[in-house]
Amino acid sequence: MKKIFGALIILSLLALLISACAVGSNQATGPNPVHMDDSSFKLLSIDIKKGDKITLINDNAPVHIIANGTWGDNNTPKPGSETGAPKINNLQVDGFGSGSIGPFNTAGTFQIYCTVHPGMKLTVNVK
Ligand SMILES: [Cu+2]
């Protein structure tokens, strides 16, 4: 009887371990990774070097559509790109997928946002 309980405990620990791996974040990677969940970037801003790219990594199922611009007061979309910003033409990042933005070849501060999710925005500081 004790052996059966022991086996059951080991089996349930294994199941826990496997499920923990399954719900872990997207393992994709690339230069300057920025993870995204259901409706937000997991960073408010990122500092990169001139000439660098950013890798957007979608940890969840919802699709994100990324463009130049930001969300203003009351979550009003504010499309627009700064001088020297790489053109981001509605880059679609599918569920559990990833995408690359850049290179950012000009020093400065650049805004990108997700056109789908109000408030989902990222500031890119290029030094
Ligand atoms: Cu989004």
UniProtKB/TrEMBL annotation:
It comes from Dictyobacter arantiisoli. It holds the Pfam family Copper-bind. Residues 39-127 form the Blue (type 1) copper domain. GO terms for molecular function: copper ion binding; electron transfer activity. Keywords: Copper, Metal-binding, Signal. Gene3D superfamilies: Cupredoxins - blue copper proteins. Residues 1-22 form the signal peptide. This is Blue (type 1) copper domain-containing protein. InterPro entries: BlueCu_1, Cupredoxin.
